[in-house]
Each structure stands twice: as structure tokens, then as C-alpha cells.
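Review form for a predicted model. The reviewer records the input and the model, then writes brief findings.
Reviewer: anonymous (R2)
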Amino acid sequence: MREPRTLRSGSKLMVPLDALHPTQITVGAYHVAQKMHVTRRIAPSRRAAFLDRHRVHVVIGPEHTLYVVDHHHWVRAWHDLGLTHVPAIVRADISYLGEREFWRWMVERHMVHPYDERGKRRPLKELPVSVHDMRDDPYRSLEAFVQLAGGYRKVKQAYPDFRWADFFRKHIEGPLDTSEGFAAALVRGFRLAHSARARNLPGYIGRLACASS
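Model under review:
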């Protein structure tokens, strides 16, 4: 019996953006807007190299469907900017698996995270069909900006951003739908990230040194 023909891990592709399927339900809208701003500032002559540095990580599933497993915020930002094709890198080609086996493989390897904007796990069938359909979870933006401000370190671990988002969801009341409310939440989030309450979270830095009076 012939082995199925698949792409090697690390293969680089240029793919239609509207062919990408999310493996998460949410993104942070403010964080998407920040990535749109960063992309807009790139000179046209440097755009291709910039996109290459932020290649979308994909898994190829049944019927050669492309599933995003990393860089959902970049994908959404580029979608909202009107890009039609984006560079991708293949994490795995398991297009030879059936639908049930494929999703079992994805769940076992933490390649899918079907949690909604309230932090509640949802059935896999509720994953968005397209990048455009991902919903806003403001606490995902909050954790991203706390990290960018030095609140905690980025770590190579499955979904640390969701753990931080849920931590802030528990300790910081919303809504976060105004610039003033989000700014106040960011200040509180930064302090919380350095507090003892966050010591078991991935990338925890530790308590801030008290300023001398």
C-alpha cells in the first residue's frame, strides 16, 4: 500500500486568506487593531519580508483544509486590512486522517482551543468557519497588552494567553469596551500580573520592587 502524499513539517506556502479556518473562537479586538497598526507602518518594499517573519502556522486536515494553529491575531489583522494571500508554514499535514481522527489528533496535541468570550468551553462544532467570524474577547487584548508592557514573559507552552485572560477575567470587572475602562484595567492587570496571585501562571516574573520613598 502506498503511503499518503503529504507535505513535510516546515514546508512554506502562500495561501488564500479566506481558505484559513480558525481553531479558536475568539481574538482580542484591541490586539488585532494594534497588529493592523504595526502592519500599516511597514513600507511596501519591506512588506513581503515582514509577512514572512510572521508566517501563519497551519495544520492541513481532511480534504486539505487549512487550519490556523498559531498567529490568529495576525491573520485577523491582515484580513481586516484586505490582504488576500498570506505566507504560511506547515506544522503538520494529516490530510489522510478522517474527520473524527483528525479532531482527536488536534485535541490530544493541544492544537485547538474552543473557548468562547466568557471563557467557557464550547463544542468543536462551534468553531468559526472563517477568520472573519472569530468573536471579540476583550480579556485576550488585556492579557496581550499586559505582556507587552512587561507584566509577564512569553513562554512556549500551550495557550498561556488564555490562562492569563481567564485570570484577569476573574479579578478585573468589565466592561472593557471604552478606552478609559481598558486603560484602567491595564494598570490593574499589570499590578496583578506581578502579584502573588499570579505566581502559578506561565511566564510569571515575580513581585515588583517597591519604589523607595
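Findings: The mean pLDDT is 94.
Further findings: Residues 25 and 134 are 5 Å apart (CA to CA).
Recommendation: see findings above.
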